[in-house]
Amino acid sequence: MRKITKVLLLTCSVFTLAGCNNTPKDSTAKADSINHTNDSSEAKTPGVPATEISGDDAKFAVAAANGGMAEVELGKLARNQGTTMQVRDFGAMMIKDHSTINDEMKGLADSKHIVLPDSLNNEEKKLKADLMAKKGKEFDQAYVDAMIEDHEQDIKDFEQAAKIVKYPEMQLFIKRNLPVLKMHLAAIKKVKAGMK
């Protein structure tokens, strides 16, 4: 009996310590965690009701929403801090286009019970802070480079997601918005070429 009590106490201590992990999660990690709990492909705890969702769709939705929010926030910086009309105009385009894309994703996520992040993740916050610290041509160059890198990655992510998402509505979202991302990449590369 004592042995069982010790094992139970040890087990309870482990779960208590695990539950007290005070490492703050950023908004995308929180959303991913909630969505993972509701992933229909994961084993469920008997007797615990959950809204079942497609984990692949949820993971993509969280990443796309975070990226879209970042494009809008960084676009606002470019519109206000850019030294050339091309950088300011590109920033304005990011605000307009990605606000529309973000609204579409919010509607889709709501209809599928997918939780999206409510703020930028730590990586995007750091990029924003780094850009805010730059002025003049240094800002323009850093912003343009970030937008090229970001849009190249976004295009890869959308193309990869198109192969694995399960909801027809998510497929349609990707099909409708991938050309917009490609247009953005071509536009920012043109801005970069004009900076030389």
UniProtKB/TrEMBL annotation:
Residue intervals of the DUF4142 domain: 56-190
Keyword ATP-binding: no
Transmembrane regions: none
Highest taxon of source: Bacteria
InterPro entries on file: DUF4142, Ferritin-like
Secretion signal, residue range per the UniProt entry: 1-18
Region (Disordered): 26-52
Keywords, sorted A to Z: Signal
PANTHER family: BLR2558 PROTEIN
UniProt protein name: DUF4142 domain-containing protein
Phylogenetic classification of the source organism: Bacteria, Pseudomonadati, Bacteroidota, Sphingobacteriia, Sphingobacteriales
